[in-house]
Amino acid sequence: MPVVRGCNLPEDRIYDVENHMWFQELDDGNLRVGMTAVAAALAGQLVAVTPKKAGRSVKPGKSCATIESGKWVGPAKSAVGGEIVAINEALVAKPYIANEDPYVEGWLVVLKPEGWEAVKPTLTPGPDVAGPYEAKMAAEGFDGCA
Predict the structure, then answer these.
(1) Domain span at 86
(2) What is the pTM of this model?
(3) Which terminus in the chain has less CB density within 10 A, N or C?
(4) How many domains does the chain have?
(5) Coil, helix or strand for 130?
């Protein structure tokens, strides 16, 4: 697993480095979507996660959830559009799960994607993510995950 400045980035995900999001392809063709360990570290302790409701559509590049911490409120932007088919109710109840385990327990939504085959090549595969993330962290002056 790539680790950049103390931040874990599992190889089995596909990353939108610019927006600190990950995508995991599921066997049924849907995508599990979440925020990276870098996003969780930048935000600090999460106090609220408000995903769009199941059945709602997300446009490419738009928010699939609103994330709130003590120092930041903002969108979790999905690079791909589609219909939300599931939300992580456990995360809604306990937002800090995303700080503790952003890749397994702390996912945000499951999306039935539209146009994934066109978007996927614009994202970074897990095995190749260390270089782009190191560059982004350096450019933003982010020391890393503690």
Answers:
(1) 3-120
(2) 0.96
(3) C
(4) 1
(5) helix
